[in-house]
Amino acid sequence: MSFTAIDTWWWPYVFILIAGWLATDLWRFLGVYFGGRLSDESELLVLVRCIATALVAAVIANLIIFPSGALAATPLLLRIGAGLAGFAAYLAVGKRVLVGIVAGEMVLGAGMFINHAL
Asked: What is the pTM of this model?
């Protein structure tokens, strides 16, 4: 069975839905199945959390250093400052992610407004 196996208007959509489900949900089900047997303090789970955290940090750093769209028009120091302000707010209020995100966005938005006004 392939993407071009059936010549109807709806087949590409069904193919993408099935392929997308298999590519993501299969791994989720396996993670739930095997993850229930692991201790929260196991070395494997600590490693997985470390890798996941590193990947998120890398994506955020990539967005700050090499932005696209409207963010690319902002100065690098503003982007770094907004990231640092968000992280400081996150730590200051007891590691609440939403507060860190909102604080970083507020600093970035204010900086973009001031930069545009000048």
From this structure: 0.67
